[in-house]
Amino acid sequence: MALEGVILDIDGTLVISNDVHANSWVEAFAAYDLEVPFETVRPLMGMGGDQLIPKVVPELNGEEGTGKAIAKLRKELLFDKYIPQITAANGSRNLILKMQKSGLHLVVASSASSEELEIMLKIAQVDDLLSEVTTSDDAEASKPAPDIVEAALKKGQMTPEKVVMLGDSPYDIESAGKAGVAVIGLRCGGFSDEQLSGAIAIYNDPEDLLQHYDSSILGTNA
């Protein structure tokens, strides 16, 4: 069966950002006298802040009080300090161009805010290529809840069975799975093959997928 389209995660998938995001969270928690080790936060990258905060500090949430303040500071730190450390994943732009040439409908599904996403798309050098996006504004709950994937399906007017998602984390796989969408996993987000075991295929990065494009599920549209 030919694919209709591809849902795209950005952080850890098209940009190398997971370590940077983890460091921004560690610093934000520390500002409120909460010592949260990098090793605790890093495995949670790919999960939205609304899910991450209570996971790390169960008595907090991102909607009120200290949890909300931490989420706000984390975002400020990202913009003021950490963004220059983020780079494009190898092959991001060329893979997007290849998928578009193949006639695939591309929709971004990110747990990031619209402001963050705008910057990440520029870093990935695909901001001129991807116009259909969904962000945290389009979902009540972030990954691993299915909301953002379902929002991307709705925006693209696509059916789950004819779509794959490109992602880097187990939370992408869980989120997409709940929405009935299969996932191609990329190792460039820093997760192990075991953690990505729910994916239908795993590649090193966008460039690796591009090199194997014709033999991948994406090649059904080539």
How many strands, which pairing sense, and closed or not: the largest β-sheet? 6 strands, parallel
Beta-strand content: 5-15%
Supply the number of structural domains. 2
Just give the CATH class of the largest domain: Alpha Beta
Q: What structural class results from the helix and strand content?
A: alpha/beta
Please name the fourth-level CATH homologous superfamily of the largest domain. HAD superfamily/HAD-like
Q: What is the terminal separation in angstroms?
A: 13 Å
Which parts are unreliable, with pLDDT below 50 for 5 consecutive residues or more? Answer: none
Helix fraction by DSSP (H/I, runs of at least 4):
25-40%
CATH topology of the largest domain: Rossmann fold
CATH architecture of the largest domain: 3-Layer(aba) Sandwich
H and E order: EEHHHHEHEHEHEHEEH
Mean pLDDT, rounded to whole units? 95
Explain how this protein is built.
It is a single chain. The chain is α/β, with parallel strands linked by helices. 40% of the residues lie in helices and 13% in strands. The strands form 2 sheets. It has a 6-stranded parallel β-sheet with strand order 5-4-1-6-7-8, sandwiched between helices. Helix 1 packs across helix 4. The radius of gyration is 17 Å and the shape is globular. GO terms for molecular function: phosphoglycolate phosphatase activity. It comes from Nostoc edaphicum CCNP1411. Keywords: Hydrolase. This is HAD family hydrolase.
